[in-house]
Amino acid sequence: MGLAIMSKASNVVILGAQWGDEGKGKVVDLFSEHFDVVARYQGGHNAGHTVHIGDRKFVLKLIPSGILRGKKAVIGNGLVVDPAALLDEIRMLEAAGLQVEGNLFISNRAQVLLPSHRLMEKLGEARPGRVSIGTTSRGIGPCYEDKIARRGMRIGDLLDREVFEPLFDTLVAEHRAAARALGVDDGLDPASIRAEYEKLAERIRPMVCDTARLLHDAIAAGQSVMFEGAQGTMLDIDHGTYPFVTSSSASAGGACTGTGVPPTRINSVIGVSKAYITRVGGGPFPTEALDSWGGQIRNRGNEFGSVTGRPRRCGWFDVPLMRYAAMINGFDSLVVTKLDVLDEMEKIPVCVAYRSGGQDVTDMPATVKGMAALEPVYECLPGWQSSTFGISSYNELPPHARDYLDFLEKQSGVEVGCISTGPERNQTIVKPNSHFARLFT
């Protein structure tokens, strides 16, 4: 495609515009070639980015996918890090012949996730009267809880044995006491876990630094930074479908708080959206297709979690949701992925508005009850019923496929600047004369 960054001063946030799983891994991998640094700013190893390179498939859970391009990869302070999971990922990349040490940098301010955090999440999900969120049970939420309660442990603490041991003992003792109070035998051996984490600390020590300083110095030197979001806007702890959300700031604002880079250094925000919409776990989903169409989309799109394998709930493109995500994030352009999944459809519904109790709804409801009361208003567009798989030129798309993309653009108020037509790097279209094209060509 001959893509190149126009200005080395361009610092861009790329994040999901829906409930996650939009295909950000491929997008970040594809365009990270032209950045100097790729920084992840929130989440943990509950969020996976899947990247296909030839016949090889990489599922990255913590490490930014820019590592596949040999770029500096930063795990920011906004993440919670399970050192064991991180080292498993490092071994996987090294076994594939990729250079990790010297390219991976871990914030000394990121939080440490312990096995007892997983215990706490299972206890919370199973507690009587608690609404099940449908988490991955990897301990992400409880680790963020400890962070906000100011009793958590940072990577910098992990590396200092005098600080780590009493902090570890106190934190694990609190977790175990909570389990005993609920009559649960936790089965943990604190002494062996502590010894294991002391060994893990030495393995990651060479990669740990003040990543905020690293990013500031890189930007000051004229280098470009891509900020990689995990999950999606509607899972943001503040702006998503609370409480069916993640425990971190998945929207564009999280790029600043999760890395220590100020908003004045961000030049552009790019959203990633499927040509339809999916979500995993519980929570409101106004345009969910509960009929056979939902199953067809799931099978054609292989809509199963890259980390958990869980089947995703599938539905139709939601314009009001996209307008909301664009408002929260300030999207300059949108990447639409998995267009080819809709290739066989004769008609394609698109939600263009919400109604509740016979009244038009202009703002996204703040409560689950308000979301559940929404009635989507659909317009049906003609399908193209021909293959778009692998097409790399906008003009080669079937006319009805172009009409569909134009409709999404006009209805949402966000340009569609890039389209993905398959998992490979070259199965991508950059729309001519778009903001996206001006940014990346």
Question: Can you describe what's shown?
Answer:
There is one protein chain. The protein has a 10-stranded mixed β-sheet, with helices on both faces. A 3-stranded antiparallel β-sheet has the order 16-15-17. The model is unreliable at 1-9 (pLDDT under 50). The termini are close together. Strand 15 (347-356) and strand 16 (359-361) form a beta hairpin. The protein folds into 2 domains: 12-107 and 210-440, Alpha-Beta Complex (Adenylosuccinate Synthetase, Chain A, domain 3); 111-206, Adenylosuccinate Synthetase, subunit A, domain 2. The protein has 441 residues and is an alpha/beta fold. It has helices at 24-32, 83-95, 115-126, 140-148, 155-158, 161-181, 190-204, 211-220, 254-257, 292-300, 319-329, 368-372, 399-412, 435-440, and strands at residues 12-16, 37-40, 49-53, 56-60, 72-75, 80-81, 104-107, 111-112, 208-209, 225-228, 268-274, 277-279, 313-315, 333-337, 347-356, 359-361, 375-382, 416-420, 428-430. 32% of the residues lie in helices and 19% in strands.
What is the strand and helix layout of this fold?
Blueprint: E1 12-16, H1 24-32, E2 37-40, E3 49-53, E4 56-60, E5 72-75, E6 80-81, H2 83-95, E7 104-107, E8 111-112, H3 115-126, H4 140-148, H5 155-158, H6 161-181, H7 190-204, E9 208-209, H8 211-220, E10 225-228, H9 254-257, E11 268-274, E12 277-279, H10 292-300, E13 313-315, H11 319-329, E14 333-337, E15 347-356, E16 359-361, H12 368-372, E17 375-382, H13 399-412, E18 416-420, E19 428-430, H14 435-440
Parallel strand pairs: 1-10, 1-11, 2-5, 2-10, 5-7, 6-8, 7-9, 11-14, 14-18
Antiparallel strand pairs: 3-4, 12-13, 15-16, 15-17, 18-19
Helix pairs in contact: 3-4, 3-6
